[in-house]
Design brief:
- By secondary structure, the chain is an all-alpha fold.
Length: about 600
Amino acid sequence: MKRSLSLAFVAVFFVQQLLAQSIDDGKKFMYYERFKSAKDVFEKLVAANPKNEEAAYWLGQAYIGLEDVVKAKQTYQTALQANATSPILLAGMGHVELLENKATDARNHFDMAINTSKSKDNEVLHAVGRANAYTKAGDANYGIGHLQKITTTKKFNDPSVFVTIGDAYRKLVDGGNAVLAFKNALTLNPKYAAAKHKEGLIYESQKNREFFLPAFEEAVSMDPNYGPAFYSLYAYWYFRDVAKAEDYLNKYIAVIDSDPQNDYFRIYLKYASGQFKEAITQSDDLIKRVGADVIKPRIYVLKAYSHKSLAEKLAKEKDSVNAVAEYANAKKNIDVYLTKSKQEEIVPKDYELLGDIMSGTPGSESQAYAYYEKAMNVDTVQENKASYLDKAIVLANKLNDKVAKAYWQEKQYNAKKSPSNVDMYNLGRTFFDAGSASGDFNFYRKADSVFAIYTTQYPDQAYGYYWRARSNWSIDTSMVNSMANPHFEKFVQVASASKDSVSFRPQIKLAYKYFIGYNIFVKKDYKVAIEFCDKILAIDPADKEAAEYKRQLTGGKSQATGNNSKATSGVNSNSVTGRNERQAFIYS
């Protein structure tokens, strides 16, 4: 009898050891982000013992890794039917609810899991921290608080906890604490490649190549089976050295789960090397092999990029007919992608791509503005935002769309932390040009506001006063309110005193011509008007207009105001759009 009990105990012991090892095997696959292999392990464990809560939890995590939230939820719901108060399963359900943007329900499940386990189950605390670190709706600070409890327990030696803490800090954009957490993980296990790789990701986000590239290389040296680091190296070299990128891609594919869709990465290298037609053909072949309902939607983005690049190449070759056809194909594929993808899968660059496609499509260029703006609104990287703004301004210039340029250049100016005097000047000029193109006085008012600030910050620079004068004159076209007068006067004063006064002669002459018109039409003071003619002739004796104005004015008042006088013919003091006759006189 004792022998039978002993054998039974040994059998149970070995079964438990086998299951524990199997769970560890599955968790190892999770570490390497081989979620399909992990799923296969945990599915077998759950099938063998449906009451195995830990296996059920990790099966749900594997499904989350495979982006199958529905299956993850079903897994947790089924397991909770057998044990509705299981802390680890409650934590798993909370993870799913965060993915569903049900933050309140998730917090209730997390609190229940922690309270039920009395905050003493490190696996439960880690599950709560994991859920909050790796979901958009998660509360990283809440997760960090519970993860830190684990690090204070006796005999703590799990580097994965510090990695999760580091990722939570990454989510908070706290690079300093993130790097510290990853270094703590490496202190516990100097060969823990995930910590070194994620440390590299911090430096990569800071564009610090001196640190992130060695970190990626060190990670694959620590563990040649750690695929994510190989992928980062492939991505880095993708647009820099196709041969190196291909080498790292081969190493990446060698250590990840086998999947026909891995061919996607090889096809992308075709695109990177300029083989656009081959990329399109191989993408179509992959879609057929895998199935349009199964293939990951991003293949259509690859096709869209390839068609767009082919269109740009054809356009340079003056093959406009085929270029338009390729732009249409690019648009078709990005539309398929946007239809098939979940909203959270769409990234700002996808909207930028759509903007680029519309920008190159004759007759549809102006539609690109909306997509550049959408990309700018959802992107959190300032450098990327600046790129979208630049593209919109380039497009506005291409279309000679001065109103659109004013809209985008104002956004660009406001996005700069420390705009220069050149930035301010360009914005003011853009507003002025938009007013000239549209006849909308609001643009002139905006121009005046910008140049008012300009003259305050740069009082010794004459152009600020000049464009204030021009802006106010464009508002007060009849000159009756004298809005431009003080600004032209100040401009002449500053410009004449400048070392570069000779270069300002064309603008000074225009200011004097303004005052000729003002004294003829508004003040009726022909003597002063003649004095301004003389000022023009003093700096430019060959100015024919000034000489003609003076000839007419010195002929007497009747001639200056007669029906045949060029100075006064057809005056329309009520003009409100564009240049009225008084402005035409100045510009004649």
